[in-house]
Write a structure and sequence with these properties.
The chain is mainly alpha-helical and about 240 residues long. The protein contains eleven helices and no strands.
Length: about 240
C-alpha cells in the first residue's frame, strides 16, 4: 500500500479522536417529529424512507432547511403513507428545503421506483447488491451519484463511500488525491484503502463534513488554529487559498 493509502485510515482515526462519534444520518425517533443523530443501526421502514427523502432534499441546501421540511412531513404523516400524497402536497411541505418544485418531482420519482422495484418498501433496497441498487437509483430523474450513494449508505446501510465537496477538499489538501480527481476516482480510492464497512464509511463521511466546518473551510482554512490533521502530521496544507 502506498503511503498516502495508509494515511486514509489514520485520518479517520484522528478525526474520530478529535470530534467523537457523529452518529449520522439524522433520523426521527419513534413517536417523535424532530430528526436526531444516532448510531447506524437497524432502521424501521419509516426511518429508512425518511433518510432517503432527506438525501434528496439536502441537494443544494443546508441540513437546517431540510430538517424543517422533514418536520413538516412528519407532522403530516407522510412517512407512514407516502404514496397517498400528491406532488402538490409534497411541494408545500418541503418548501423550506428550497427548489421545492423540482424536489417534489424528485421525491415522487423516487417513490415510483420504490413501488416498481422494491414492492413499495425502502427497506427492501438492502436485499440487492450495492452495484444493482446504485444502478436502479441512478436511473431516477433527480438522483445523482452523491444522492444515490447517500441513500445506499445511510438508508440501505450498505457499504459505499459518499463523496462530496468536503471530501474532495480535505483529501486534496491532505495529499491523498489530486485536486481535480473526479467523483468515481475519489470514491474508489477511499473504498480501496478502508475496511469495507458501512459503519466506518458513514462515520468517516460525517467526520469529514465536521472537519470542513471546523477547520477546513473553502476560502479561510484555519490550519494554524489547531487543525488535528496538521498537528498529527497528516496534512501539510499551509492555509493559502488561491
Amino acid at each position: 500500500m502506498k503511503p498516502r493509502g495508509k494515511s486514509v485510515y489514520r485520518i479517520y482515526k484522528t478525526l474520530l479522536a478529535a470530534y467523537g462519534w457523529q452518529g449520522w444520518w439524522p433520523v426521527t425517533p419513534p413517536r417523535g417529529i424532530f430528526p436526531g443523530y444516532k448510531t447506524l443501526v437497524r432502521l424501521s421502514s419509516k426511518q429508512s424512507l425518511e433518510v432517503a427523502i432527506g438525501a434528496i432534499l439536502t441537494q443544494n441546501t443546508s441540513w437546517t432547511n431540510v430538517e424543517r421540511a422533514v418536520v413538516n412531513l412528519n407532522r403530516a404523516g407522510f412517512f407512514r403513507r407516502p404514496f397517498d400524497f400528491s406532488v402538490g402536497r409534497i411541494r408545500t411541505m418541503i418548501r423550506p428545503a428550497g427548489h421545492y418544485n423540482q424536489k417534489a418531482a424528485y421525491v415522487r420519482n423516487f417513490l415510483g421506483a420504490i413501488k416498481k422495484y422494491f414492492g413499495g418498501k425502502t427497506e427492501n433496497m438492502s436485499k440487492i447488491s450495492v452495484a444493482e441498487l446504485r444502478e436502479r437509483l441512478l436511473e431516477i430523474n433527480g438522483i445523482g451519484r452523491e444522492t444515490a450513494d447517500s441513500i445506499i449508505l445511510y438508508a440501505a446501510r450498505k457499504p459505499v463511500f459518499v463523496v462530496d465537496a468536503y471530501t474532495l477538499r480535505i483529501a486534496s489538501r491532505a495529499g491523498l488525491i489530486a485536486g481535480k480527481t473526479d467523483y468515481e476516482m475519489a470514491r474508489h480510492f477511499f473504498e480501496l484503502h478502508l475496511p469495507r464497512s458501512a459503519k466506518i464509511f458513514a462515520e468517516y463521511h460525517a467526520l469529514l463534513v465536521r472537519h470542513a466546518k471546523e477547520y477546513c473551510g473553502k476560502n479561510n482554512p484555519a490550519c494554524k488554529a489547531g487543525c488535528p490533521l496538521l498537528v498529527g502530521g497528516l496534512c501539510s496544507w499551509n492555509g493559502w487559498v488561491g
